[in-house]
Amino acid sequence: MREFFENIKEKILGAVSKINDSYEFKPALSEIEDSPVSPLGRFTFWTIVFLIITTVLWLTLGQIDIVASARGIVIPDGEAKIIQPLETGAIEEILVKEGDFVKKGQILIKLDSSASDVKLHSVEKNLKQSKIEAQRLKATARGKGLLTKESNGKQDEELAIQQELFEQESRLFKSLMQSRKMQIEEANNEIKSLEAQKRDYYFQLQNALDRQRRMKKVIDIIAYNEYQDICDKVNNLRENVSRLNSEILKAKARKAELVAQMAQAEAEFKTQKFEDLAQKQKEIKELEANKEQIDFSNKKQRITAPCDGYIDKLMVHTTGGIVTPAQELIALTPVEQPLIIKAQVLNRDVGFIKPGMNVSVKIDTFDFQKYGILNGTLKSISKNSIEDEKLGPVYEVYIQPDTKTFKIDGREEKIATGMTLNAEINIGKRRIIEFFIYPLIKYLDEGMSVR
Fold it and tell me: SUPFAM superfamilies, per this entry (predicted)?
């Protein structure tokens, strides 16, 4: 090939060097007849031949990249964090704007918590009252005093009321126990009286029995009526002792019953108080759980940042506006979140691309003719297409850029979330001549297939 071009070059130069101007001074007709063919024509001819051959060789051997173009946008890898409210509320204050940098835990939006504050106050009041009532029930059941002073030394009205109830219950209980004790004491006195009578009758009975034995020995010399009187007296005394024994047993049984009733009354009183205490403690636990729930809800009325990052998008802007559970309020891009490119590939191109292909990314913000492009790698392709209003069916692809900065006037500028771009996926190479041949072949093929 090189020899071919060198031969052409030599012929052109040789033709130019052989130009003879000896005929220029002859008559015009003779000059025309005798003048040899102009070497400029030959030069022009061989120049055209050279250009044609060069063009054909360039079209045949030259190759250009085939790319699939796709519009896209820079997004955080894993998407932005969407912040939502837990429950319905009215916006009290919006503390950030789009583009702001926020720290983890920083309050972004305040919701009106007045309604929940009222609930919290009511629950706290009921909880305080229930705890004091539980303290009273415990003190009553255990028989211990109830404190009536708070740590600050001031009289608490509710605590004073519970103290008064405690004292009333204590007085009633003591009165009941005192009444039972008096009944038991009366039974004791009755038993003592009966036992004293029994001892007296028993002493008389012993004396009567002694006399009866002595009189029996001399029954022959005494009057029968006298002996009969002593026998009747012994029988009467025995009946009285027996009667008193029976009455003493009944009195002791009555006393035992009174003691049992007293113990039962005391046990029932304490049992009732402990049952009331258990019920009150259950109520306290429910109130504490309710308070924790309201506290949690109140905390959620302060919409905070879950991590350090930038406010990518603010979906609400009206103070006093109503938000509902799961409503999207803020899109937050984490500061440490890596960036990735999401692009939409046309349906006709998706069959020619695969993960791992090289991609040239032209960011709209930075003129690629002046600042260059970003190189990247095709990371993944969605399995299903989505319908785009303008482009029709498209497939989402994700591109990992090799670098994320441009050098602008001596300083480095990073690409940011939301920047639009054009991604060119390199799907192969094609000879230049094919761009001219394929349309012709397609035209001929379609023309021959028409009836």
Answer: HlyD-like secretion proteins
Interatomic CA distance for residues 148 and 157, integer angstroms: 9
Angle at Cα 440 formed by Cα 437 and Cα 443, nearest 5°? Answer: 150
DSSP H helix total and E strand total for the chain = 8, 17
Using CA atoms, how far apart are residues 85 and 82, in angstroms rounded to an integer? 10
Half-sphere exposure of 30 (CA within 13 A, CB side): 6
Nearest of 159, 105, 152, 92 to residue 132 by alpha carbon: 159
Cβ atoms of 47 and 12 closer than 8 Å: yes
Q: Which residues pair with 399 in a beta bridge?
A: 341, 378
Do 405 and 414 form a contact (C-beta atoms < 8 A)? yes
Cα(377)–Cα(211) distance, integer angstroms? 137
Q: Which residues pair with 21 in a beta bridge?
A: none
Question: Which alpha helices (DSSP H) does 325-380 contain, by range?
Answer: 368-371
The pTM for the full model equals 0.47
Closest CA to 277 of 131, 163, 145, 174: 131
* Cα–Cα distance for residue pair 118/294, rounded to 1 Å: 10
Report how far apart, in Å, the C-alpha atoms of 228 and of each of 94, 208, 224, 233, 400 are: 119, 12, 6, 9, 136
